[in-house]
Amino acid sequence: MVALRVLLGTAMAAPAISLATEASSQAAANPIRRVVTMIQNLQAKVEEENEAEQKLFDKFMCYCKTGVTTLAESISSSTAKVPKVQATIEEAEASVLQIKADLKQHQTDRDAAKASSEKATGLPSNHRRSVAAPIRSRQSEHRRHRP
Fold first, then answer.
1. Domain extents in the chain
2. What is the DSSP letter of 115?
3. What mean pLDDT comes out for the span 30-45?
4. Structure pTM?
5. Are the C-beta atoms of residues 34 and 27 closer than 8 Å to each other?
């Protein structure tokens, strides 16, 4: 009977020993498994970053292609406007010169009109002032003495 018990005890202990060996092998493989999982996660992250960078690169290349054509169109339209703007500037400069000449002519005409007015009255302007001052003072005195 004792032999039966030993045999039975051994048969029951064998699965427990095999379970313990599997647990220890899993524990031993666990650090490796962690490293492999970490590398796989890192690979997935790098692929996501690569896709995001590729999208940004594609947008930049599209901007470069359209930017060059937009810039070329802007240059050509500005080049076409140059003669018109230059003609407008020349017209404005001619207008300014004409207005300055007219101003000089009007000033000369005004001075001539003043001179002819003074000549027509027969008195120089400073003489008229000297004569007009005493007359004004006499008039103001006369008004003060009125009852």
1. 2-145
2. H
3. 94
4. 0.38
5. no
